[in-house]
Structures are given as C-alpha cells and as structure tokens.
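ESCALATION

Customer reports they have been waiting on this structure for their group meeting. Please prioritize. Original submission:
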Amino acid sequence: MSTPDEIRQQLEHFRSQFEKLRVETHKMIVGYEDTVENVLICLLSRSNALLEGVPGLGKTMLVRVLSQILHLDFVRVQFTPDLMPADILGTNIVVEDAGGQRHMEFRRGPIFTNLMLADEINRATPKTQSALLEAMEEHEVTIGGVTHILEEPFFVLATQNPVEQIGTYPLPKAALDKFMFKLIVHYPNADELMEISRRTTSVEMPSLEQVMSKEEILELQSVVRDVPVAPHVERYAVRLVLATDPDSEFATELVKDYVKQGSSPRGLQALILGGKIRALLNGRFNLACEDVRKVAIPALRHRLTFSFEGQSAGIRTDDVVNQILEQTEEFVDEPALAS
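Update from on-call: job pushed to the front of the queue and completed.
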C-alpha cells in the first residue's frame, strides 16, 4: 500500500505530465480547451473518443499532434461505403516460400497501431463499423480463428459529420457504447480563426517536443485506476446512470417522456474513470461527486436512445442529462441501493 508521500508524488507527477501534454498540444491546436482535455482523459483512461463536428475543424490535426508528442504510431483511415473489414483489420493471404511451398500468412491492417483516427466513421457500412468493436473493447482482433493482440497503448478516435447525412450509416448503440466520451467540436470564434491563420499560413510552424513515452502513458493509466472511490460517490454515479432508464425510480420527466433506452453499465465506468482523472487534475487522490458531474454530459450524451416522441420533439440529449444532474441529489450517508 502506498504511503502518503508516495501518493502525493504520484498526484503531482500526474498533474505535471497532463499539463505538459495540454500545453504541447495547444502549440498547434487553437482553442478547444475542453475537447483537448477530454480527449486526453479518454487516452489516459485506456478508452476511445468520438468527435462530432463539420470537416476542417482540426480533428485530424489533434490526433497527429498527440502521436508526435507521445511518440506513438499513428494511422488515419478514411471510412467510405466501399471500405471492408479486411481493409482495417488485415487478412490471411497465400504466400509461396523459396522452396515452392505455399502457406497462409497474416498481413496486418492499419488497426495495428497506437493511435487510430477513424475519419467519418458513419460513412462505412455497419459490417465495417463492427470490425472495430473487438479492437476497441478488448484491444485485440480475431482473424480466421486466430487472436492477435494489439500493442499498448491503443486508442481509437473517430469522427463524424453531423450535417451531411446522405450516404451515411448511423452508428448502432453497441458501437456508440464503446466510446467513453462523445465530444462536440464547435466552430471557432473570430479570435481563434485569426490565430489559426497565423499558425498555419506563416513560414515557421510550431515545433513539438515529445512529452512522454509509451511506458509513461501506461504508468499514468495505472495511477488512474488506483484512485479510490467512496461508497456515497459511487452510489451517486449509479443514480445518474439509473436516471437515464425510463423504467427506473430515479428517471426524470424528460427521460420518462422521451427516452426509449438509457445508458448501459459502460456509462457508469465512463463516469468513474473520467471523474478519477478530474480529481487528480484538481489535486485530490479521491473521487468526489463534483468530478462525476464534470464528465456526465460527454459520458452519457451518446448512450441515450430517444423514442419516436423524443425524436419528433427535437429533444437534445444534453438537455436530458442536464435535467438529470439538476434533480439527482447527493447523500453522504445514504444506505446501499436495493438490488
């Protein structure tokens, strides 16, 4: 068990390294403070992130910058309707050796990397989308009955365009559930646009430095898992997740009226892991309810399925989650929830 001094050192090291990542990323990325922070939270939680925004807002640049400052292998895959699962995972091919003997050999696909950008993921067919599920969840892929382990750390950042819907295939709930956060990338303001112009159209481009190695990333991921969670905070997170279920006693009015299906237990995992990193960044080695609230919207917004009435009324998932946050109370000495 770690001593108080060791815990203090871990905490300061984590905050210092996270701040270095943030500062180095913003040498190239203008604005998007919340988006950058949440992407880093997903990375250090050993999870994946989904970015939604129109083209040209720097989503690809963000992943490329992360690969440079973390010294990770990076692959960008443009998802299209004709993309096949083998184009991502790889396939077995027949190879003839020098002696004329033929045998099957596995040729690895682009998913065998550290950072993978699945660009416009909703333009590929559901069959191809589903090829990512095992890799995102288990960090491995199975081809021809043989399982291949992906190198750690492994992180998928997917993007989708919320405007152009012709020729797209909306991600099914099972696929959305594999993303820890869904992040909305908004259009930059006037000052940010001017700064983008200065940084990208001048002769000198910002130089990026490597902040940490793969081993250090895995070490920080381990620190996150060590953050303790008090029972009353865990119960608060549980109530937030149960409040998304229209059949639950904790459900709010908007949920009962417009939500068809609420969050899975992965929503709870996202709240806890994301909250742990928020706690570390706030200088605490213990999770608080305020940390859980900070990550509730990106952790739950993509895990709600609206009924026909909800779709017709144009209800926003963020409004539903905000109401849940407003109406879910904290109880320090609350008894355990009934099963």
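Sent to customer with the following note: The chain has a mean pLDDT of 87.
Escalation resolved.
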